[in-house]
Amino acid sequence: MTSRGAGPALSRKNYRLSTEPEKSKVAGIVNSRLLNDYLHRVFTSADGNQPAAAYRKHLTFQNLQEHLDRLLAEENGSEDSRDQGAEGRLGPSTVVLDHTSGFEGLLLVDDDLLGVIGHSNFGSIRATTCVYKGKWIYEVLISSQGLMQIGWCTLNCRFNQEEGVGDTPDSYAYDGNRVRKWNVTTTNYGKSWAAGDIVSCLIDLDEGTIAFCLNGISLGTAFDNITRGAGMAYFPAISLSFKESVAFNFGSRPLRYPVEGYHPLQDPPVSDLVKARRLLGYLKNVIHIGIDVTEGKLVEKDTSMWQLQGEPTVLITLAHIFNYFSPLMCKVYLVEDVLMTFLLSILERGGAVEAHPLIQQLLDLMWLLMEEYEVHECLKQLLMSLLRAYRFSPIIPDLGLQIHYLRLTIAVLKHEKSRKYLLSNVLFDVLRSVVFFYIKSPLRVEEAGLQELIPTTWWPNRFTKEGKESKEVKEESAEERLRRRAYERGCQRLKKRIEVVEGLQVQILKLLLNNKDRGGGEASRYIFLNKFRKFLQENASNRGNLTVLCPPEYMVCFLHRLIAALRFFWDGHKAKTPAALSSDEAYVPPQLFYNGKVDYFDLQRLGGLLSHLKKTLKDDLAAKANVLIDPAELQSVTMDDLDEDEESATSAAQSQRPSAALAIGGALARPGWLSSPTLGRANRFLSTAAVSLMNPRRPLGALEKVKVRTLSVEQRTEEDIEGSHGNEGLLLGRPPEEPDQPITENSLLEILDGIVMMYNLSVHQQLGKMVGVSDDVNEYAMALKDTEEKISRCPKRRRDIHEELLKSQKVFSEKLNHLSRRLAWINVTIYSKEKMQDIYWLLRVCIRTIEHGDRTGSLFAFMPEFYLSVAMNSYSALKNYFSPVNSMEELPGYEETLMRLAAILAKHFADSRIVGTDIRDSLMQALASYVCYPHSLRAVERIPEEQRISMMKNLLAPYEQRPWAQTNWILVRLWRGCGFGYRYTRLPHLLKTKPEDASLPSLQKPCPSTLLQRHMADLLRSDRDLAPSFLNSVLNQLNWAFSEFIGMIQEIQQAAERLERNFVDSRQLKVCATCFDLSVSLLRVLEMTVTLAPEIFLDWNRPSSELLLRRLAQLLNQVLNRVTAERNLFDRVVNLRLPGLCVIRPQACHIPSWGACHVRWIAAEVLSPEDTCILQVT
């Protein structure tokens, strides 16, 4: 290693030069003549020419530094050129965003003052440098595609929350969201932008024009004759709405799309750039030229297979090069322009990454010959440049750019020491490495080359969510069949290209999950585990902070790649350990939820708060799992305690931080998608509050019952995770119900747990969001079909109408062509068969995890709620979101999975161990949806009889003090199709007012369950206490619902009869309709009960029969009197035909009431004359 400014540290004393051939052959030290030739070949002059041997200076390692200084000074020249480049510009040489005075509104600015996020209605900010003469350019990297106005403004422009760049005189902007240009007035201009695009902003102050480019393609001149003259200078500026984000490049990095004749606002480091390129040339010469010590001559080498092989002469030569090269590689511009370009050129020859070991050798050299801080900064800048290049590369048909950058990322991460440093300090702390696993969807299919890849378009007919066609479709014509097959071939071509990218992304994760690289410290997998857990904590604990949350579209891709990598290692362990489980049998053992080895942050458990569970179930933990909770864990921590301790904890934490952290206000460095110094308080709270709650790790004792404490992420070691010497690691505290069988490596279990959490955080939401493209295709297809039918019916004499219809047809066809190609991309990246199998695998993992947790009895309460949520949501996604081409019924074990999920819903919707209101409601709603579809209802009927009876008993529990509406709805669905006039899908009078939507559970065709009805009847007959309590609660709720309904329609009637103009509140109309629906459904449950078990009303051996029959008769009389009387209140309100009350019709109450009255003939002889008369009248 050399010391800066003091000459080479490698002296003649350490490396003696030999002139004796026999010594050189043995030791590899070259003689002076050969060394001289070698050094002159390596260190050529600027023009590349070498002087004749007789005229060139004799070089040795002693005078090499002087020779290098002379060579590097040859092309530096004077500094005048740099000053000339600054003409026409005012401001600091380093251009950033003006975060001190040049902004309006609330904005979050990145740490380097080049990225910004809008945090108010319409915030604006400008740069610190302006221009008044010449041609200038800067680039904006679009991170979100929302409402933004990007361009130029003068110092006199005044912005507010409503007016931004382009809304005032002397400010000019381009808006790719609305595809317009702005300068007080607005007109159409340019193309729509998308996240991942780069906008170039150009201003020519000599000609007075402003233009814009999108991904290097000119959009044309936007403005001409802009105001110029004395006092007029233009700043780069932007206005953006809430949550929108961009990053600027004023020249601190090489421009992605430079334009000839235009200068970046910030000058490139020309001198350093020339020096770095020269030094890189010397490095290439070293790699290309070899020394044959035996023959005493120089030889040409294959650069791709170059290795250092411990040659002292070569090593000393490289040390001299790196003495100058190392400081330059700490600058982002030089790393991106010189180093990354060189490394990419190595991989351009093709082949696997393993076929290019030169990159590994170069990284070895960097760690050997550079200072540690220099290597760290260089690797950080290299990965930042790679991530930026990958994220903002345009999509081309073969995805070549994305593949190129991913291959280099893999090559860098293959180097063990570099990988561990990047994992520990960069990939999750500075960068958002999840971006590497994202494949962005093209908004403009023509630029992505999808027209060439998928020349023929096709769109499917509308399907139901069950995977069946909703309407009868005519047999496919030959032309349609050819189009469909051509479209499918195009989709397959696209799929193969995307699979290449996905394979590279999985390779990256396999490198990060390597647990065999223990040389020099902790294995990569355990570093990744701790960072991954922190990543999950950020996204789970900052749901309202959009600057910290990982975008859901990134999470979807990351989830699928992580599942692929996890299953690879899981099955690899299975191959080595036959007794372990395969990935097809994977689950998370229940002890992870209570032994404190895995942090679940503040996520809710099934049994409530973790602190409460530790107190109430500490005896069960000791008895079942041999786990004792540390007394310190039982001390409740209130928010007041946190507030009191926060200041002291903050100061204590700051005292241990380096001075660099204190210089920025003492805020801990915390990554953000575009982090901001303005979040210092939030950073401090999130960091110090978390640290104050952490407990120091204690070694596990050898007691019979193990005392455990929750470990923070930073405190865990490989031993804490995997265990050793009797320590079970993550599996500590195995309950007796859990089989004593190896599952897999403990670290893989934690990754699996994190995958389930990821799905719950945002993946399911994104899966539902992307279905919108498929819905758009269906809507446009219906519109096109309707237009074509109108064209066929249009009279020939109406040419004007015919021409308009042809224009509409063309518009719909073009839109469908665009959407069908975009849908192909989305289906491949999100809804493909392989992605569906991943979600199905995740569903089965959750089912097995819940089943194992359920067997632990009371300890089931420790399970996080998200396991049940993911089980329900993943099933919903498989059923509703994936293409009918990938039907769930084709998945292996589909029927069994459906039954096991049904058993979980049936058992746990009324489980006393589950206390959370939200999760109980979700279980109830999931069960209600489950019984609406024939396939899932049959699965409920296949669960064990004991569980079916228990489910029906819970459904028949009294309605008071619980959410009874969903319970009642489940009973109604079990009855629909069997009641009196109850075989329609929806109310007959609504069939024409709204199109049928097959996705709604309430609009499914009747599919009654006679088996569950029989269980209900048996329970009502056999349990003499259950029947009266259930019926009384139903009658009470019916009395309340119908009374509320009548009261509301009276208010509506009174408002309608007033002479002055009145408007009925839409919310009141909605509540009124809801009360009516509840009344009708309760009447149906009464009808069901009367039909299935009439003896509970007529068996006089039951003490409650007479009372129940009287209540039934009186309530039915009340209902029918209200809805059947001529010209009554009910009819008058119905005839008003108010919007929102279309569901209210007399027959909706008539029919179930008649069904419930069928016992009147049996009851006539046992009732009093008055009650008999009531029944006869009804």
Automatic annotation (TrEMBL):
Q: Which residues form the B30.2/SPRY domain?
A: 75-255
Q: What Pfam families does the record tag this protein with?
A: SPRY, TPR_RNF123
Superkingdom of origin? Eukaryota
| Transmembrane spans | none
In this chain, composition skew of type Basic and acidic residues spans 715-725
Is Metal-binding one of the keywords UniProt gives this record? yes
- Output the PROSITE patterns linked to this UniProt entry: B302_SPRY
EC numbers: 2.3.2.27
Protein name (record): RING-type E3 ubiquitin transferase
Q: What class of enzyme is it?
A: transferase
Report the Gene3D superfamilies cross-referenced here.
Answer: 2.60.120.920
Annotated region (Disordered) at: 1-22, 714-739
What is this enzyme's catalytic activity, as reactions?
S-ubiquitinyl-[E2 ubiquitin-conjugating enzyme]-L-cysteine + [acceptor protein]-L-lysine = [E2 ubiquitin-conjugating enzyme]-L-cysteine + N(6)-ubiquitinyl-[acceptor protein]-L-lysine
**A biological process (GO) annotation for this entry?**
proteolysis involved in protein catabolic process
Q: What GO MF annotations does this protein's record show?
A: ubiquitin protein ligase activity; zinc ion binding
State whether keyword Hydrolase applies: no
Keyword list (alphabetical) reads: Metal-binding, Transferase, Ubl conjugation pathway, Zinc, Zinc-finger
- Report the source organism: Anser cygnoides (Swan goose)
Annotated Gene Ontology cellular components are: cytoplasm
